[in-house]
Design brief:
Elements lengths: L2 H11 L8 H14 L5 H4 L7 H15 L4 H5 L1 E4 L2 E4 L9 H11 L5 E5 L5 H9 L4 E6 L2 H13 L4 E5 L5 H10 L7 E6 L4 E2 L8 H6 L6 E2 L6 H13 E10 L5 H10 L3 E7 L5 E7 L3
Parallel strand pairs: 3-4, 3-6, 4-5, 6-9, 7-8
Antiparallel strand pairs: 1-2, 9-11, 10-11
Helix pairs in contact: 2-4, 6-7
């Protein structure tokens, strides 16, 4: 089978999942990421004959895509903040909005940084890569998730200190952090992209997100959508130095409510920022003096 026939086959199998030009980009990404064939060969080398060692994994990838598995999981990695981040179904696929959060965070990443709910480790690793002189710590409550994050740190040769802790247990988190050399009142930047999608929003989400990505990294109860931000405010009060920065990604529906929450928790200079779609997506605040 040559590339031209493979393209035709993949287009038939994936017609319900993708439309052109997304389909063309998807197939060229498979050629590059799975078979190490330059993606532009999609257009320029249609007569190239795919060998068995190339065709077999490509066909498996098409089968997975036809079942709805996201491209990032099929390829096993994404590029985030100039870093290669490996992903699988244990961790959330990093979104462009979170890369925007990283871009904002770089400006405040000096001294000591703490990444809460680190997931794949993308934020912590990209921050350490961008600002090497910082001391970066990161935690998650899931051991398997932390294994992915630690592997990504090794892959990108970044020294991020990971530890397991529950966001809702500040005392236990403090104990775990102390074992890693992190004490209270020294963090310059606390950054986080916690779960924030309400259960009721599931009906508007794409099927492949619901099937393949981990619920615990996405959803919060309808009756308490701000639960993680209350805990983050408490974590910040413990770990941030005076005037240290809290920077979080949020659900667009709760921007003003979250600003009030952080004000009630004693934070100052609270600012609500929009993402590149014009939606309320980030809050930046400072711990009081």
């Amino acid at each position: 089978m040559n590339i031209k026939i493979f393209k035709e086959y993949a287009a038939i199998r994936l017609k319900d999942q993708y439309e052109a030009p997304a389909l063309q980009l998807f197939i060229s990404s498979l050629l590059d990421g799975i078979a190490s064939i330059p993606g532009y060969w999609y257009y320029t080398h249609e007569d190239y004959l795919l060998g068995p060692e190339e065709l077999r994994p490509l066909m498996i990838a098409v089968d997975q895509a036809a079942a709805g598995r996201p491209l990032q999981y099929i390829l096993g990695q994404v590029t985030f903040g100039g870093c290669q981040i490996q992903v699988d179904e244990r961790v959330l696929i990093p979104r462009p909005e979170t890369e925007q959060l990283w871009q904002m965070a770089v400006s405040f990443a000096n001294g000591t940084v703490l990444d809460a709910c680190t997931g794949s480790g993308c934020l912590a690793i990209a921050l350490k890569n961008a600002v090497p002189h910082t001391s970066v710590f990161a935690f998650d409550n899931n051991y398997d998730v932390l294994e992915v994050a630690k592997k990504n740190a090794l892959l990108n040769t970044t020294n991020v200190r990971f530890f397991q802790a529950d966001l809702s247990d500040t005392e236990g988190m403090s104990t775990a952090a102390n074992r890693m050399g992190l004490t209270g009142g020294v963090v310059n930047l606390l950054v986080s992209n916690p779960p924030y999608v309400t259960e009721k929003e599931k009906e508007h989400m794409k099927h492949h997100v619901l099937i393949f990505e981990p619920d615990e990294a996405l959803f919060v109860p309808n009756e308490d959508p701000l639960v993680h931000y209350r805990h983050l405010a408490d974590v910040g009060k413990h770990f941030l130095r005076p005037q240290g920065v809290l920077l979080v990604e949020i659900n667009e529906a709760y921007g003003e409510e979250l600003c009030r929450l952080f004000e009630q928790k004693g934070y100052t200079q609270i600012q609500l920022h929009k993402d590149f779609h014009g939606k309320d997506r980030f809050i930046r605040a400072r711990r009081e003096l």
